[in-house]
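Many introductory courses stop at the sequence. We go one step further.
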Amino acid sequence: MANRPQDMSLDELAQEMNKREDSLDHLTAKAEITRRQTAAQLDATRAIISNGKYMLASVIVAAIAAMASATSAYFAFLSSLANVP
């Protein structure tokens, strides 16, 4: 391999994967592809965890808003009963 595996594009790594399975170039390319897949999975996991935290926060805010709305409707109902002759 002319370039380091870390510097190669996916197309270049695919070309290296077409060599004999027991060659150093093939094994190195295979290891680099596996490393990139693992890094991508770790990044995706971090994004999912971050999005989960934002979703939990939005659900809590929505619940508080619903409770405030229900409380407001209750007091409006009580107020309307007080005005009945």
